[in-house]
Write a structure and sequence with these properties.
Length: 160
């Protein structure tokens, strides 16, 4: 094939999407823009795993999807209980709740874990320690200072 005068580049990766918040009909637009992979960094776990399955099987057209599952919030929700975005939250009220919450994400095929705004520092650090590098841990922090989780070896920070 003669590609003279043409530009070829690999598929792009969008590292921050909330795929269950957008309409399924918009997912083919990712491909049209050259985005062949996307990292979903906050979604209802059941919905995003079903979406990933549909994308993998070809039942839904769109990018390859890597998922973190829910935003792991502290005891207080970051969104109003009336907000439709509450469905993408899960709560880790104490350090003692870390194994159950995180293991369920890992057991169901989560590709990462996302810490969220009201998660206190001790719980955030306990999650990073519990994950032990099995999957990446990222965070959109509020109650936890970035340096606390950087020192605990977090893999990424969102919305700095």
């Amino acid at each position: 094939m003669n590609l003279a005068g043409r530009c070829v580049l690999p598929g792009l990766i969008d590292t921050h999407v909330h795929s269950t918040v957008v309409d399924r009909e918009s997912l083919p637009e990712f491909l049209a823009a050259g985005v062949t992979s996307a990292g979903d960094v906050g979604a209802n776990l059941d919905k995003v795993l079903a979406l990933r399955s549909d994308l993998t099987s070809g039942a839904q057209l769109g990018p390859r999807l890597y998922v973190c599952g829910p935003l792991l919030d502290g005891a207080r929700p970051s969104f109003s209980p009336r907000s439709p975005l509450c469905e993408i939250l899960d709560f880790v009220p104490t350090v003692e709740d870390v194994p159950d919450k995180v293991q369920s994400i890992l057991d169901t095929g989560g590709d990462g874990v996302k810490l969220y705004f009201t998660l206190p520092p001790e719980t955030a650090k306990a999650i990073i320690q519990y994950v032990e590098g099995r999957v990446p841990v990222t965070g959109h922090l509020g109650y936890t200072h970035s340096m606390d989780v950087i020192e605990a070896s977090i893999d990424g920070l969102e919305h700095i």
